[in-house]
Amino acid sequence: MRHGTIVLVLLATAATTAGCGARCADIAARKRALTTRTMVAPGPHAQVRIPMARANAVLAALVHDQPISVPIALPELGPFALPVHELAAVARDVELRPAPPDRLRFAIRIEVDDAQQPLTTLAIVAEVKPELVRTADASELVAGFGPEGLLAVVPELGPDAGHALVDAVARWLPPAIRDHLPRAIVERAAQQLAGYLTGEAYQLLRVTLLRRLGDLTRLRLRLPALPIASTALTSSPDTLTVDLTTDLPVRHGLTASPEPSDDVQVRISGSTAAELANWSIDHGHLPQHYTRDLEPRANGQYRPWLDFVADDRQRPVKLHVVQDRGGCSYFQVGLLLRLEIVGDQLNIALLDRRVESAEASAPLELALWLKQLIQGSIDSSRRAAAHTRLSVGGRTLVTRVVRATMAGDELAFALQIAAEPTPKATDSIIR
Questions:
Q1: CB-side exposure of 348: number of CA atoms within 13 Å?
Q2: Which residues contact 82 (CB under 8 A, 6 or more apart)?
């Protein structure tokens, strides 16, 4: 009898151990499926959209607040010698215009003045390829024009140049000469002046005024805090768009067309947001392990992973919790998200929650886990979006997230931008 009891206990123990072993093997397989995916969906995985009107308003204010002027010496004109006279070239306008892919186009207006009044304007176009600059803390697109970035086009004088230059040449002549010169000679001298302004004088302006203007209006777009593999830049009359592709194992990129907005928009696909959270956990930006009571602790037994399965329209957000120390257990929860920002507080509603799979000997407080872990992961995406910042010359536009939505397969954040209140007058280039 005694011997039979021992046998039953041993059999029961063996059965329990075998069941636990099978469960541990299944859980290990699930973990491998979560952590060994390498396929990356085509981009874009995230997107930044900047209204052209906002960027151009900052450029206009900067040029107005820090005007750049250089002298232009007058050449000999016609069969007469002018009194010593000097013109000035003053940068009046710089604005962004639509450009070919991966290019930025600047339209520049330079006013040519004499001592008394404006004479005419020079219209110049510069086109540059922004450079992706990576540092330990950020990735930035940097674009500024210089002599090498100007398009091979002839600068154009303003439509009023003909009469204005004739009147200027006549005004510069002593009355005794002006009153006896045929009008045709004065007009010929004005044509020489026009050719000089669009030729020799323009070449001098390329390496003086335009270089300084390019430094003053250099754009620096600090991109969202993502592990960026590549960027693609497009522009329209309304919007400057930067598409971002990561090297994360994203299942689905962005597909929907965004709604028009007067604010800066940052869009992140749901799968990118999930993989960003996992990346942040892997790199120690978010806690890696937790106790049963959801306390972040280096020796915690539980590790979370997020996933976003767009094909599951009911509950696309998946939270996987794996016990990888001190036992074997696994939970998978599916849910929907609803986001809103009230003041500066991001509120997250977890909808239609359901435990879709569980292999465990004891339940966890999954409601608490869901709220804390999803909140932390979405906050990670909000911080990535808020990281976006535009600098023009020495002026930085600070950003504030004012709207957040989860629409379909993407998170969308609206950012209001404002110039720093006291830019340094000595800053003429981007820091």
A1: 17
A2: 74, 76, 169, 172, 173
Over its C-alpha atoms, the chain yields an Rg (Å, rounded) of 32
Predicted TM-score (pTM) of the model is 0.83
Instruction: Give strand pairing partners of 140.
Output: 133, 222
Q: What is the pLDDT of residues 161-189, one digit of tens each?
A: 888 888 888 888 888 788 888 888 888 98
Cross-strand pairs, 10 = none
Is 126 within 8 Å of 149 (Cβ atoms)? yes
Half-sphere CA count of 85, side-chain side, radius 13 A: 20
For residues 168 and 88, what is the distance between their CA atoms, to the nearest angstrom?
A: 13
Cβ pair 291, 301 in contact under 8 A:
yes
Distance CA 279, CA 285 (A): 8
Residue type, 354: R
Question: Distance between CA 144 and CA 140 in Å, rounded?
Answer: 13
| Measured distance CA(291)–CA(307) in Å, rounded | 21
Report yes or no: 305 and 297 within 8 Å, Cβ to Cβ: no
Neighbours of 127 (CB within 10 A): 18
C-alpha dihedral, 299 to 304 to 305 to 310, nearest 10°: -170
Tens digit of pLDDT for each residue in 66-88? Answer: 889 999 988 888 776 666 678 89
Q: How far is CA 53 from CA 49, 232, 239, 258, in A?
A: 12, 21, 8, 18
Residue 348 has pLDDT above 90, yes or no: no
Q: Is 274 helix (H, G, I), strand (E, B) or coil?
A: helix
| Exposure string for 262-277, b = 16+ CB within 10 A, e = fewer | ebbbbbbbbbbbbbbb
Closest CA to 49 of 256, 191, 246: 256
pLDDT tens per residue across span 88-113:
999 999 999 999 999 999 999 999 99
